[in-house]
Amino acid sequence: MAIPAAVRPLVVRYLNPVLRRVAHRLPGFCVATYRGRTSGRVYRIPLNVFRRGDSYVFALTYGPDVQWVKNVLAAGGCEIETRGRHVALVRPRLDVDPLAYDMPVPVRQFLALMGVDHFLWLDVEGRPADG
């Protein structure tokens, strides 16, 4: 279970425009930039993100079947702006982790309450892939 799909339009219409202005400066947030896989349009979306070594991980609070995830997977990456820095990310991969082991403890507890167990991992461009 993830956040109900019925909530998504409210988030997109009201919360995302506000977060898009400040998320790139807040810890645990970013603004991700990616290209639509069929339209070619460039999108910018505020997201929670956490750095883990040479990778970043996104908790997929709406599940793995949302458009932004499909677009990032199809493109093989995206760019994020987080804490004032632009970071190119590559090699996206989905992971299922019911314990949210790689999340900070307070986030892990929230995700457990929400039933979120899907994550999207991406590596910092130019860093070697695990082997």
Architecture overview:
The protein has about 130 residues and is an alpha+beta fold. It has one domain (about 5-125): Electron Transport, Fmn-binding Protein, Chain A (Pnp Oxidase, Chain A), CATH 2.30.110. Helices cover about 25% and strands about 35% of the residues. It has helices at about 10-20, 65-75, 105-115, and strands at about 30-35, 40-50, 50, 55-60, 75-80, 85-95, 120-125. It has a seven-stranded antiparallel sheet. A hairpin with a 2-residue loop joins strand 5 (about 75-80) and strand 6. The longest helix is centred in the N-terminal third of the chain and has 15 residues, at about 10-20. The radius of gyration is 14 Å and the shape is globular. It starts with 7 loop residues before the first helix and ends in a 7-residue tail after the last strand. The model has no long low-confidence stretch (mean pLDDT about 85).
Could you give the topology of this structure?
Blueprint: H1 8-22, E1 29-35, E2 42-48, E3 50-52, E4 55-59, H2 67-75, E5 77-82, E6 85-96, H3 105-114, E7 118-124
Antiparallel strand pairs: 1-2, 1-5, 3-4, 4-7, 5-6, 6-7
